[in-house]
Amino acid sequence: MSKRSIAIFASGRGSNAQKIIQHFKDHEKIAVSLIVSNRKEAGIFEVAKENKIPSVYIPKSKFVEERYVIDVLNSYQIEFIALAGFLLLVPPFLIRHFKHKILNIHPALLPKYGGKGMYGHHVHEAVSNAHEDVSGMSIHLVNEEFDKGQILFQAKCILEEGDAAPDIAQKVLALEHRYYPLILDQYIQGFE
Ligand code: GAR
Fold first, then answer.
1. Helices (H), strands (E): how many in the chain?
2. What is the pTM of this model?
3. pLDDT over 90 (residue 1)
4. Is residue 177 flagged as an active site residue?
5. Pocket perturbation via mutation, ligand 1, pick of 102, 113, 119 by most ligand atoms within 8 A of CB
6. What homologous superfamily does CATH list for 4-190?
């Protein structure tokens, strides 16, 4: 039986991608088969290279071309997409084509601190400025709006008085690394 293939979409350094790749390395049923990024200089390409996973750069202007994007994904038999620090809005044609098969990770407890412009350090700064005593991460299905799809899993971390954005980022990232690969695995294996 052939494995089910995941593409990871990322725009940045790719530490979550690295954890996902590690998790599925010798997996019996699932493989990471492609890395996609909209940023040519993103660290994720280094991660792809180190792990010998094919990667493709698709600039924002190309992401609107349905035939092109679908053909790229089909050529690697992609069935699921994991967004890991991917900062473009996923185009509706992809959401239709991969119905309930695109997952995202967000570095806060949605529905708080989500939406357009809420990514990376912006999220942690907002949490810090609001003097929250908890933060965490959310894994959710992707729909047409930023961070609005069905939440599949959340994990919390306790914040100390005086935790600044980088401290919060560190706590949240540890949760992301721990849970994203596991939740992806569980979700994909449970998918008919
Ligand atoms: C992660 O913390 C992820 O939750 C966040 O970007 C970071 C990517 O880090 N995503 C968003 O903010 C999406 N709105 P990484 O490149 O090291 O995996």
1. 6, 7
2. 0.97
3. no
4. no
5. 119
6. Formyl transferase, N-terminal domain (3.40.50.170)
